[in-house]
Design a protein that fits this description.
Order of helices and strands: HHHHHH
Distance between the termini: 72 Å
Helix content: over 70%
Strand content: under 5%
Radius of gyration: 22 Å
Largest sheet: none
Number of strands: 0
Structural class: mainly alpha
Number of domains: 1
Length: 169
């Protein structure tokens, strides 16, 4: 990555963090949690840009993996701060939302360029789907891990109970 590209990415990350901060305040993220929300948003954007590449041909993979990181960090920070993961997920995916694609789709539809509207609209919907799939994947894995831990804990408690019953007899 060239120096000018790196500087451009740093500027994007810095300005994006301010946008995430403003949006987080707007949706009433608690003040002491704002730094975590901004950090997750910055990480998601940098991940998206790196994976997407210059040509943009890996945009769906970029949306998926960036949202996986959002879900992962949101789950971790929610456990750390004892807050709902939603206050981290929503600001975290804000930079990933394909707003320009939605705008262009509507613009082309209004201007009766339906072939371009269909092309960009399809890409936009696929990107939105990959973002939601990434967040759902992390949420499902988190629930599965918690279920396995709970079942293991129940089994251990049942075994301890059996041992105690043997001692009592």
């Amino acid at each position: 990555m060239a120096m000018s590209e790196m500087m451009n990415l740093i500027i994007q990350m810095f300005l994006g963090t301010f946008a995430i901060l403003g949006f987080s305040i707007l949706i009433n993220v608690p003040q002491e949690k704002l730094k975590f929300a901004c950090l997750i948003g910055a990480i998601s954007w940098v991940t998206f840009v790196f994976i997407k590449g210059d040509s943009g041909e890996h945009i769906l993979a970029a949306g998926f993996w960036a949202s996986v990181l959002v879900g992962f960090f949101a789950d971790g920070f929610s456990r750390f701060t004892k807050e709902a993961a939603t206050i981290y997920v929503i600001p975290g995916i804000l930079p990933l939302v394909p707003g320009a694609g939605m705008y262009k789709t509507m613009w082309y539809m209004i201007n009766d360029q339906l072939d371009l509207a269909a092309e960009i609209g399809t890409e936009t919907l696929m990107l939105a789907g990959s973002i939601s799939l990434g967040i759902m994947t992390v949420g499902s894995l988190s629930r599965l891990i918690n279920k396995i831990r709970l079942e293991r804990k129940i089994r251990l408690e049942e075994n301890e109970l059996k041992t105690v019953k043997k001692w009592i007899k």
